Amino acid sequence: MAKVKGDIVIDIEKCKGCELCIEACPQESLETSRQVNQKGYLYIVKIEDNCTGCVNCALVCPEGAITVYRKVDKKKEHVAKITNVTKDINITVNE
Amino acid sequence: MKELRLMKGNEALAEAAIRSGCDAYFGYPITPQSEVLEYLSKEANVRTGMVILQAESEVASINMVYGAAGTGKRIMTSSSSPGISLMQEGISYIACAELPCLLVNVNRGGPGLGTIQPSQGDYFQSVKGGGHGDYKLIVLAPSTVQEMSDFVKLSFELAFKYNNPVMILTDGALGQMMEKVELFEQQERKTNIEPWATVGKPKDRERNIITSLHIQPDKMEEINLKLQAKYREIEKNEIRFEETNCEDAEYLIVAYGLVARICVKAAQLAADKGLKVGVLRPISLFPFPYEKINELAGKVNGILDVEMNAGQMVEDVRLAVNGKVPVEFYGRMGGVVPTPEEILENLEKKLAGGKA
Amino acid sequence: MNEKRMIEEDQHFEDVIAEESICIQENIVYEKPDTLTDTPFHYCPGCGHGVAHRLIAEVISELNIQEETIGVAPVGCAVFAYNYLNIDMTEAAHGRASAVATGIKRVLPEKYVFTYQGDGDLAAIGTAETLHTCNRGENVLIIFINNATYGMTGGQMAPTTLPNMKSTTSPFGRDIATMGHPLKMTDLVAQLPGTYYVTRQAVHKPGNVRKAKKAIMNGFKYQKENKGTCFIEIVSNCPSNWKMTPRESNKWLEENMIPYYPLGDLKIPNVKEN
Questions:
Q1: Total domain count for chain B?
Q2: Closest residue of C to B25, CA-based?
């Protein structure tokens, strides 16, 4: 089964803390930090590790400050399993 | 072989625009210059592919000129006094953004809606900067239909030499009257791309931005200083005037445009009476021939400035003369053209003490 | 630090994080387009201008038309649009952007030309230019940001300010009896035969942003068909002058602006006559 993993990078110096990304995030992954950036804005940070890379936050970001990454991991199936040894050995093949 | 034609001033100007390889004209009808747009509408596109667009207003026209001139092509508009007033904001933007283009004012009587008859009431507006801020147009004042044609070509040359708008300041009489004109040969349309033009940003150059907005005061001052330096350069190189019998004149008349021709006639009448009168005709109103007038002021007993207004250029003449000799003014307003006789009468009355 | 060493170190850094982080070039699904400069926007936090600018840049990048595009900036908050879009641009006088665009397009008919204007610029001082540009069917794209206020001058009443909406020049609310009705420019230009594609969009939610981008994409593409003016209104917010937080402003936009300025296409090419 394919597993989708997403992540974002926020350019905190561009961020003005408008919170529109927080509103747009379906995973509730984002929160306002307690730190200010050089311009004095409370910037936004990702606090949960549940991002799916849906890009909603980047779409509504007025500063173009968010880069979104997404990786689809295909779980590798075993092609063989050797038993009756001191320890099980699983063999997988890299694509 | 010479190509001679009998043409109206406005038509000669329009024909010259086509022959200059002008790329586009944007304008709005107004008497007494509508023939320019009419002539171009009929002739220009079919002959050279020149773009002709009748805009919804003079305000739109001048802003179309601004946009199109930003592409580095040869662009022009024409209008008459009230229409030129409407364009002033745009002219200020064009001057600050340093865009070459040709503006034509076929001056009519004002103020207000005024009259459609000829006038020189827009001298201040044209020469001193009719819009906001410190800027200058190069202003050329033709006095014949021939010059209505020749100055179009000259204007485009000067506009691109200095990246500055050039105005041809003429009047309703010159626009409407017919004279013999020798036409110059058809010039090629422009093909080279100016390095500053907004034509789409290639990968290998920085983007071009045409703007007159510089929020930081020091930057805006820098822009102003650059403009002023350019204007000084123009003053150094581009002063044009015509002298008639100035060498041994007792009195000097200073007049521009059509009025200068009437003054030459007045000087002839004076000569008949034994009075030596020279005529100096400034052709470039900016840059103004201050030095020439100052030089002549040292040789005559007095100067009469004649204009079709309440006395505008006379201020520049007085600046040039700087108190050396008396400078008197005679003018007619509201579309009235002075006669040679009344000019001479005023010269005698005001300067020569009824001598002649 | 010399350039070569920087690259080596970056490479090393990527190698190290590759094992844990997915934040590597090949996994990027959304990033700032390259036709947007690195200059930070001067707009207030939460302002829709930033999104609208970015969408234009994305479309120019995706269509690969940077070399063929000339933009016209207005007077208003977006007066500095040319600082952000990495394309040739001209800054127009207040209200005259569509006349400036006409001038450019007429002498460069093969290029893509667009204006970016606010409601004061386009629907008040520039009404005549806007209507006549659309009526002549100039092959330009007009992008109209409607946030019902004069943002840059500090929140005065705009032609699109809603009835009873407060502004610094309608402090008791816009009284339509004395101040007139909000001007629905988009509905007006849709009636003109010169327009080819007229639509009203918003950028306050992800779904709207996607639709608005598609509209802008169409607006650029249709220019090549030479069939008339494309006009895209983007209903937007102004948190600072509406005196709300960005999140409140978007809620207010949804509850008040959109009912008055309903989103959707007003004129699309395939529903034109015949």
A1: 2
A2: C103
**Considering only CB atoms, which chain C residues are within 8 Å of A58?**
30-31
ipTM of the modeled complex: 0.96
B/e letters for B126-156, b = 16+ CB within 10 Å, e = fewer, are bbebbbeeebbbbbbbbbbbbbbbbbbbbbb
Residues B213 and B211: their CA atoms lie apart, in Å, by: 6
Tell me, yes or no, whether B275 and B178 share the same domain. Answer: no
Tell me the residue type at B57. Answer: S
Beta-bridge partners for A46? A30
Neighbouring C-beta atoms of residue B346, cutoff 10 Å:
18
Q: Which residue of B has its CA nearest to C90?
A: B210
> Does one domain contain both B286 and B185?
no
Chains A and C touch, contact meaning at least 3 pairs of CB atoms under 8 angstroms apart: yes
Please judge whether C246 and A56 are an interchain contact, meaning their C-beta atoms are less than 8 angstroms apart.
no
B246 lies in the same domain as B138 = no
Chain A residues with CB under 8 Å of a chain C CB are 5-7, 9, 13-14, 16-20, 23-24, 41, 53, 55-56, 58-71
Domain limits for position A29: 2-91
Is B214 domain-assigned? no
Residue B328 identity (one-letter amino acid): E
| Cα–Cα distance measured from residue B262 to residue B264, given in angstroms and rounded to the nearest whole number | 5
Identity of the amino acid at C12: H
Q: Residue C132: what are its φ and ψ, rounded to 5°?
A: -75, -30
CA distance C72 to C85: 11
Q: Which of B237, B262, B285 is the last residue of a domain?
A: B237
The set of residues, in sequence order, having a beta carbon less than 8 Å from that of B241 and lying 6+ positions away, is B280, B281, B282, B283, B284, B289, B292
CATH number for the domain whose boundaries are C36-271: 3.40.50.970
**How does pLDDT run along chain B (356 residues), one tens digit per residue?**
789 999 999 999 999 999 999 999 999 999 999 999 999 999 999 999 999 999 999 999 999 999 999 999 999 999 999 999 999 999 999 999 999 999 999 999 999 999 999 999 999 999 998 999 999 999 999 999 999 999 999 999 999 999 999 999 999 999 999 999 999 999 999 999 999 999 999 999 999 999 999 999 999 999 999 999 999 999 999 999 999 999 999 999 999 999 999 999 999 999 999 999 999 999 999 999 999 999 999 999 999 999 999 999 999 999 999 999 999 999 999 999 999 999 999 999 999 775 54
The CATH number that applies at residue B261 is 3.40.50.920
* C-alpha to C-alpha distance for C235 and C201, rounded to whole angstroms: 6
**What range defines the domain where residue B330 resides?**
242-350
B30 CA: distance to closest CA in chain C (Å): 18
Query: C interface mutation test: which of B48, B50, B62, B64 has the most C CBs within 10 A?
Result: B64
Residue B212 lies in a domain: no
